Amino acid sequence: MFLTDTHCHLNREYFPGGLSELFANAAANDVKRMIFASADEASSREAAELAERQRDAPEIYALAGVHPHEAKNASSDYLSAIEDIAGSERVLAIGEIGLDYFYDISPRGVQRRILAEQIELAAKINKPIVIHVRDAQDKSRGDANAELLAIMRECGAERAGGVVHCFSGNADEARRALEMGFYLSFAGPVTYPKNKILREIAMNAPIEKILCETDSPYLAPQGHRGKPNEPALVRCVYEYLSMLKALPLEEFAEIVKKNGERAFRIK
């Protein structure tokens, strides 16, 4: 069986003791491919360098991009740096990029500008995008999902395509993302008992548009909550979603593997 963790953070700051144990745990759980997500220029370089070195057991690929939390810290020439990093065949997409109105770590205007610039870059270099989006706790204070979709349309995100990572929106937001051709990636929260709406979205989403991730070291699945997450635990997400889809795990895993290869254009 071949499982992919399509979104994880493998930075040294999270795993200072190295990745040997993490890789061994992944192998024991059939996790054979990981996509290392980035948050800024430095983490994009770190991800790309690991992806260049780690080509098997497990395969590592990378994202390159500036997260909305880091938008305020982007240098004046950040875009050319991201484009340079993304020139590697091991860097699959521009991400994670988007809007986060929950924490508002970066001013919203800055978030919107950095998002638009990176979508346009992705379309220019023919790479998909990986989206992070989180609404304000009270949507009357800002609807990040609606603004995100408007920016995506304005900047030609359909030309780039991509993934809404760790999907946590509502059914209408899922529908609009799917209509734009995007994939929905589900993480540990889909296994949480109170997330009935998210499970219904996963059940109703076209199976050919579903991906699985951990977003490790965050959001450990049910049964592991309160502990650091790691790519091995993406198996819990696969098991849960295969149950929702009423498919044998092996069959579901093969479908999701092919989905990931289409979404990220892995040859």
TrEMBL record:
Residues reported to bind a divalent metal cation 2: 132, 165
Alphabetized UniProt keyword annotations: Hydrolase, Metal-binding
Any one GO MF annotation of this record: DNA nuclease activity
InterPro entries: DNase_TatD-rel_CS, Metal_Hydrolase, TatD-like, TatD/YcfH-like
CDD domains: TatD_DNAse (cd01310)
Positions contributing to a divalent metal cation 1 binding: 7, 9, 96, 215
GO cellular component, one term: cytosol
Domain of life according to the entry: Bacteria
PROSITE patterns: TATD_2 (PS01090)
PANTHER family: D-AMINOACYL-TRNA DEACYLASE
The protein, known as: Hydrolase TatD
Species, as recorded: Synergistes jonesii
